[in-house]
Structures are given as C-alpha cells and as structure tokens.
Amino acid sequence: MSESRRLFFALSLPPRLQKNVIQWRADHFEPDAGRPVVAANLHLTLAFLGEVSQQKETALREIASRIQSPAFSLKLDDVGHWPRPGVVWLGTRRAPLPLLQLASLLRSHAARNGCHQSTLPFHPHVSLLRGATRPVALPALTPQWQLDSTEFSLYESRFHRGRTRYQCLQSWPLVTPSAN
Predict the structure, then answer these.
(1) Sequence-ordered strand ranges (E) for the chain
(2) Among 42, 83, 132, 141, fewest CB within 10 Å belongs to which?
(3) Which of 28, 43, 81, 109 is catalytic?
C-alpha cells in the first residue's frame, strides 16, 4: 500500500510580507488570543486536498502543470475571526477574478480526483492565529498590503514533534501578460 500525504494548493507569502504580517499580528493581538501561525507557514490556501495517495498526487501535479491562469495582485485589507474553527485571519475585501477562478479550477480538479472539497464558499485568507475560540478584539484599522501572485504551489502539511510545518513540494507559474 502506498503512503499518503496531507496536501494542499496555496499561494505563498514572500519573506518580507511574512515579516510584516508577524509584526502587525504581535502589535495588534493579545498573546493569549490564540496560537500564532509561524511565519514560514503563512499562506493563502487555494484548495485543500487532505490525505492524498501517491497516484492521486501524481495526477494532481500533472493537472497543475497544464493550468494557464493569469498572474494577479490582491490587497490584504481585511481581518476577521471564525470562532468555531478558532481562526483569526487576514484576507481581502475584493478578491480578484483570476484568484477566484484559479481556486475554483483547482478545487474542481481535486474533487474529480477524489479529494473531498468543502461546501463552504471560497474565502481567500491567511490564517494568523489558531485555537482562538474565545472572542478576539480585532483591530479597527487593517493593513493594506499587496500580494503579487506569480505562481501557485503544492504543499505538504507535516506534523512532527508537536508542530505542524508546511513544505513546498512544487510550484507552477501563473501567466504574465506579455508587453506588446
């Protein structure tokens, strides 16, 4: 029997933006608000795949390699709290159409390959805190950071020694319009 891995497609945050997010979070949230997501794990999930066999992973990588989706920018200008899953997040008030299309495409391919997909609507966000099940005071002002997305990636979620770490397995470019 082949070993499965816990996988997801996501957009990464560049190191400088990771640093800005971590500092902003430290400045605006109480230490007991929840468990902070480490800088290296900050990402925007496009499609969660769950436990995936090597065969399904190979098929999904092949599909990802054929995607011709345009590059885009989005503004991280919204913050919120989902008490039931205990997540404090940073998101966008106006998701660009190419982001929504890319997520929809990846989710539909994942579902066709046997990866259960949530029935909840796609809400692009970066998880900042986990385990935030009590009310959390949200900052009145939100940052206005721009995330320029030129690629999407396949990640593995690994739990080791009490910590979850995300490892980028492969990335694929988004199509940049050529200048005429």
Answers:
(1) 5-12, 35-36, 43-52, 72-76, 78-82, 87-91, 125-130, 145-149, 151-160, 163-173
(2) 141
(3) 43
